[in-house]
Amino acid sequence: VLSGSKSRLGYGPGSGPGDTPLLDVAKGSMKRIAITGSSGLIGTALRRSLALEAQVLRLVRDDTVAADPGEILVHWDPMTGATKHPERLEGLDAVVHLAGDNLSEGRWTAEKKRRIAESRSKPTQALAKLLAGLTRKPRVLISASAVGIYGDRGDESLTELAGPGRGFLPDTVKAWEAAAEPARAGGIRVVHPRFAVVLSPEGGALKKMLPAFRAGLGGRLGDGQQWISWVSLRDAVSAIEFLMEHESIHGAANVVSPKPVRNVEFTRELGHVVRRPAVLAVPRFVLRAAFGEMAEATILSSVRVLPEVLLGEDFRFRDMELRAALEAMFRVGS
Fold first, then answer.
1. Which among 189, 169, 165 is positioned nearest to 116, based on CA atoms?
2. 121-151: per-residue pLDDT in tens?
3. Of 9, 296, 297, 329, which shows the fewest CB atoms inside 10 Å?
4. pLDDT tens across 269-328, in order?
């Protein structure tokens, strides 16, 4: 049963109007989907969306993690792929790999950069080898990626056909995607959703921004002319479900709103929605001094990305305009 064009995830309990089930449970077609990084912002929302329609297996490394009703825990070592129960992974319909070290916490020291790179490439390769070695392999591996692969590209419009940029972040994301090669070589369809900034008051970048903006201390970063590619949390989850089901999609798929905005516009719209002035500015040199290379590669980088693959397959975004997306998030009191 296909859909995924609309997620069951709203900005509060319940489903959005007109949503179509991803899986037809009544016909006995409940699917089995494994998720890594299942405690993160996207992973938690994906589990919530799938809860009534699929059996969710959570690949976890922490023995203290507790499963929600109906979930199955599979303990594994993300650096080696070792697991005590590989048989639980046989015959999966899909695996969604979301694990990875946080990019935006702290300065990028040599050690931090090593951890960032290893937390992406090593677990991805280990998982790809584990899945490729199964007798009944999953139909698809959705292995997360990021628009950071494009680097700082100014006003250039970037589709999936654009080549990678230069620098630590593009190199890291390029290696992250390449690490899934054992799964591709094993006959598993592999898709790399290249996520933009995922917006939700529940976590991620938006949650970190809110205290300053609500205090009237929000403002543009640098000159504010850098492009921000963004996507709402519910569209990010819906896109994952869509990519699972559409067998014609292989490789990279940009998971971004079709309408990126400049930083100055993002600042203005968020200030409007929280009803606070957002007229301050943080100069470029201050950001460089505070965050070093990380500021240049993320906060100040201009990435104008378009979701050509998703639009070409008739994926329907629920949140295309930034102000409307933010208003929908805050309407339910998140």
1. 169
2. 999 999 999 999 999 999 999 999 999 999 9
3. 296
4. 999 999 999 989 999 989 888 888 988 999 999 999 999 999 999 999 999 999 999 999
